[in-house]
Design goal:
- Helices cover 38% and strands 16% of the residues.
- The longest helix has 18 residues, at 355-372.
- It is built from 13 helices and 12 strands.
Length: 373
């Protein structure tokens, strides 16, 4: 019998470790198994579509000393462009991708192999299948019509989206340019996909049949009329929030923004509230997804970050989920109760997008928006 030296045993261990990485066994590892590997890697890079990654960075490094989480706040639209350019150059800079705008993510990043799915085994049985595949959704986010509840204590100042196309709201509707931020283009696309509901809402508001006047359907007609009514386009969601939500206004505008931005009302001096009673819907609700780079530089740390972002075993998910456990974000884990200050998901009237369906006409809607600017 041959005796194995320590050197040869170490070499075999390295080979076995490499094989485990190659054959996918790492996907089945617990956080405890991943931790020593992640600490050897020493760092992990996260592209995030939300600035809340800064809070995650601090919490993760406290929970897992020795791993430097480098979080970059990059919009989904910019992430998609950057990841495609990096792939074209044969470069992998990000380990973890935290992103929305799933209609484009699925077709231009996942199907092309730029990113890869990963579901932490610790939480897999607590996330419904629709939120585990084809990519893991950490939460549901929104782009919905918001109003100033200080100036409108009795509720939203409108009850029908078509009111936004009337003289009363000329120059008093604010949103981010849909050609600059994909989630807002997804909103415009959903309005077109819901043309039948927009037709019914038109007839309810104006008391007569809709005249499409050259538009393909009622959704397109709404978008055309909204832009013609001096829609105000701004560069960021915070610009919408300030315009709509700033306290002390007598006659504030309304705007499409993130329901979860109500979390900053007290700190920023806002009075944002969702117009949940507006028909046919106040906007859209969509997944915020987590994925791996197809070949992450730090594969163990990358998986550990995704596990961390899905929350721990405490009632509200602990520090990894704390930045997202707010009114207006809907965590996908079934064992974490909804935030008590939010409209219950079953009562939330925003449209849920179907990313694959959105992708089929999204470019056409973008072309329409371009002609209106």
């Amino acid at each position: 019998m041959k005796r194995l030296t320590a050197t040869r045993l170490g070499a075999i261990g390295i080979l076995l470790s490499t094989a485990a990485l190659a054959d996918g066994h790492i996907d089945n590892m617990t956080p405890q198994d991943l931790l020593p590997r992640a600490q050897e890697e020493g760092a992990v890079v996260v592209y995030s579509f939300t600035s809340r990654i800064g809070r995650v960075e601090a919490a993760f490094e406290e929970a897992y000393p020795g791993i430097d989480l480098q979080g970059f706040d990059i919009s989904s639209t910019e992430q998609i462009a950057r990841l495609k350019a990096e792939a074209q150059a044969g470069v992998t800079n990000a380990d973890v991708i935290y992103i929305s705008d799933t209609p484009v993510v699925l077709t231009e990043l996942l199907e092309t192999g730029i990113i890869a799915p990963y579901v932490p085994p610790r939480v897999a049985d607590r996330v419904p299948e629709e939120y585990r595949s084809p990519l893991l959704a950490q939460r549901l986010s929104t782009k919905v019509l918001m109003y100033n509840e200080e100036s409108n204590p009795d509720g939203a100042p409108i009850d029908n989206l078509w009111a936004l196309t009337t003289d009363d709201w000329r120059g008093r509707v604010v949103m981010v340019d849909p050609l600059q931020r994909g989630d807002y283009l997804d909103l415009m696309t959903e309005i077109v996909l819901r043309a039948d509901e927009m037709t019914t809402a038109y007839e309810a508001h104006f008391g007569q049949a809709i005249d499409l006047d050259g538009a393909a359907n009622a959704g397109e007609r709404f978008i055309i009329d909204l832009f013609a009514n001096d829609l105000i386009l701004v560069g960021s969601t915070d610009d919408v929030n300030v315009a709509v939500g700033a306290i002390g206004q007598d006659n504030p505008p309304v705007g499409f923004t993130s329901y979860s931005d109500r979390r900053d009302n007290a700190d920023e001096g806002w009075a944002l509230q969702v117009a949940n009673s507006v028909v046919p819907a106040p906007g859209i609700i969509f997944p915020a997804v987590l994925a791996l780079a197809s070949e992450p530089q730090n594969p163990a740390a990358a998986r550990l970050v995704i596990d961390f972002l899905m929350g721990d075993e405490t009632e509200t998910g602990g520090p990894g989920l704390a930045p997202f456990y707010v009114a207006g974000d809907y965590v996908t884990r079934t064992d974490i109760p909804p935030h008590p200050d939010a409209v219950p998901l079953d009562d939330f009237t925003a449209w849920r997008i179907a990313p694959a369906e959105t992708a089929t006409i999204r470019a056409d809607v973008g072309d329409l928006v371009l002609t209106l600017q």
